[in-house]
Amino acid sequence: MQVSSEQPTSTEARLQLLLFVDERPSSRQQIQQIRRYLKQLQAEYPFELQIVNVGEQPYLAEHFKLVATPALIKIYPEPRQILAGSNLIEQLSNWWLRWQQSAEAQANLVAELAETSTKPKDLENLNNSGNYGTSNVAAIRSVADSVEVIRLSDEVFRLKREQERLLEQLQFKDRIIAMVAHDLRNPLTAVSIAVETLEAQFLSTKKGGFSASPALLTQLFKQARSQAKIIDRMIASLLQVTRGSSAELQIQPHKLDLIELYQDVEAHIQDRAFTKSQSIQTDLPNDLPAVYADRERVRQVLINLLDNAMKYTPEGGTIRISCLHRTTQKVQVSVCDTGPGIPEENYDRIFEERFRLKRDEAKDGYGIGLALCQRIIRAHYGQIWVDSAPNGGSCFHFTLPVYSL
Ligand code: ADP
């Protein structure tokens, strides 16, 4: 149970109170006043006080049916009483004397009971007899029960949340697997057509029949290769999902030359940029220091960011990749485009798993790419963020540590 107690819990405490607080700045002053007032009261008549933060334990507020905070609950002696509202201190000062009197009366009865029923048997008889002593025992128990109920509610709430999280994860995996299986058909059909055409060509040439132009053959090979890459990307997304979001990301960092890596990636993206008549500009200084990073992982980040830039930027747009030796310890890589940009209120959310902007829901994708990029960059102790390009497009930036001997 994560309630903070201002006094050690004691079964001897005559008066037990719970103070429910929240973290809204607007309540801060009122809460401070209540706590100060309770401190004064505690000096004149000691009681047990537990502070509960509603934000951390909303189910407790539900348990006590609270509709406003701050709220003060007298849980012992019974009956339970709730004080809330802007004049809480005033209400408390009105009730304070009566609460003390009922606590005293209760304490006297408990003492009497202890005197008259020295043997457990007698206590049991009293408990079953329905006389005044019964309510004492019941009241004492109810405090213990309240605390136990709080503990159990805490556990039930945690388990419910865990169950919801697991169910959601399972449903998400099912959905993605179904979507990827469906989406794989298109590039697979395209590869099959290209390969079958090439095979037919090969057989026809062998028999001395019609032979296609080298340009057509090149085009078919290119088609098969680019579709195979699309399939590869989809499978990578699928693997990422099935591994689950909590899986630890393993990286194997080495000395890495970012410019050489970009040249490798460029070959991967050029076809696509060409198809959309997009131009790719680079600003890669020759004296850029090497970084200490996992080549395959950083390759994945670059490909994801460039793929997105090409996907979300309309035909004829420009994609610009630049590197900057930002500090002695960091290199910054930026991928900017002339696409529709990201609304500022979503600058953080787009890095969440499964988050996609509503406007882009009709486009291919699963909302996983940027979340994966963030995990990779963070595993390198780097940062990744987005802002707007001067022309309104988006600029994704990430940093990596400089390699030092
Ligand atoms: P996906 O592209 O598969 O949807 P991502 O995680 O890569 O998933 O991106 C999340 C969302 O961020 C996208 O759905 C899109 O709405 C937005 N987004 C990402 N990159 C860009 C970009 N370069 N320009 C505009 N919007 C983008």
From TrEMBL:
**UniProt keyword annotations, A-Z:** ATP-binding, Biological rhythms, Kinase, Nucleotide-binding, Phosphoprotein, Transferase, Two-component regulatory system
Q: What is its EC number?
A: 2.7.13.3
Stored InterPro entries:
BphY/WalK/GraS-like, HATPase_C_sf, HATPase_dom, His_kinase_dom, HisK_dim/P_dom, HisK_dim/P_sf, KaiB_domain, Kinase_SasA
Q: Tell me where in this chain the Histidine kinase domain is found.
A: 179-404
Q: What does this protein do?
A: Member of the two-component regulatory system SasA/RpaA involved in genome-wide circadian gene expression. One of several clock output pathways. Participates in the Kai clock protein complex, the main circadian regulator in cyanobacteria, via its interaction with KaiC. KaiC enhances the autophosphorylation activity of SasA, which then transfers its phosphate group to RpaA to activate it. In addition to its output function, recruits fold-shifted KaiB (KaiB(fs)) to KaiC to cooperatively form the KaiB(6):KaiC(6) complex (independent of SasA kinase activity).
Q: How does it assemble?
A: Homooligomerizes. Interacts with KaiC. Participates in the KaiABC clock complex, whose core is composed of a KaiC homohexamer, 6 KaiB and up to 6 KaiA dimers. SasA and KaiB(fs) compete to bind to KaiC.
What does the entry's domain section say?
The N-terminus interacts with KaiC, while the C-terminal histidine kinase domain autophosphorylates and is probably responsible for self-oligomerization. The N-terminal domain stimulates the C-terminus to autophosphorylate.
This protein is called: Adaptive-response sensory-kinase SasA
Protein's organism: Chroococcidiopsis cubana SAG 39.79
